[in-house]
């Protein structure tokens, strides 16, 4: 059996209010547009999640809210504080409790980039994969029957994109 993971770093956030707590930072205009573009890209390739696990930070929630309208079916996200400032091990632990066949996880760097690098057996050739900038999206498949079996190095990278590549 195959399980698919869509791993997204939130899009560009606003730094307009330096007094705003980090967890409360919203997306900026560029981030909003990038998230909408990612939604279109996911839909055009048939990458449709049946489960969404999202950091409870405002910018990750807003990223999902901008992606979701482009998808034929958009499940309600499961918000968790465990993905905020999470390291790779924590992200893997969260993923191992997923129940969907196609899971979308939305989180933050540096943990998300580390997680992506650890999961794939072979990294995508795209140079931006190393940096995993805002909005970076990896689509990977695992030959497993249950997410509890997921482990580092088991995933095959199917696709990778950064919002800049989707600009008109």
UniProtKB/TrEMBL annotation:
<dbReference type="InterPro" id="IPR013078">
    <property type="entry name" value="His_Pase_superF_clade-1"/>
</dbReference>
<dbReference type="Pfam" id="PF00300">
    <property type="entry name" value="His_Phos_1"/>
</dbReference>
<dbReference type="InterPro" id="IPR029033">
    <property type="entry name" value="His_PPase_superfam"/>
</dbReference>
<protein>
    <submittedName>
        <fullName>SixA phosphatase family protein</fullName>
    </submittedName>
</protein>
């Amino acid at each position: 059996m195959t399980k698919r993971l869509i791993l997204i770093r939130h899009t560009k956030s606003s730094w307009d209010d330096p007094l705003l707590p980090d967890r409360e930072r919203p997306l900026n205009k560029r981030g909003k547009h990038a998230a909408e573009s990612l939604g279109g890209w996911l839909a055009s390739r048939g990458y449709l999640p049946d489960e969404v696990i999202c950091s409870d930070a405002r910018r990750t929630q807003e990223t999902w809210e901008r992606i979701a309208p482009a998808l034929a079916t958009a499940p309600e996200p499961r918000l968790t504080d465990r993905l905020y400032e999470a390291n790779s091990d924590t992200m893997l632990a969260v993923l191992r409790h997923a129940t969907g066949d196609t899971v979308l996880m939305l989180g933050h760097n540096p943990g998300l980039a580390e997680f992506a690098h650890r999961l794939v057996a072979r990294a995508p050739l795209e140079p931006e994969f190393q940096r995993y900038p805002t909005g970076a999206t990896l689509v990977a498949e695992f030959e497993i029957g249950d997410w509890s079996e997921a482990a580092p190095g088991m995933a095959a990278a199917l696709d990778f994109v950064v919002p800049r590549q989707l600009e008109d």
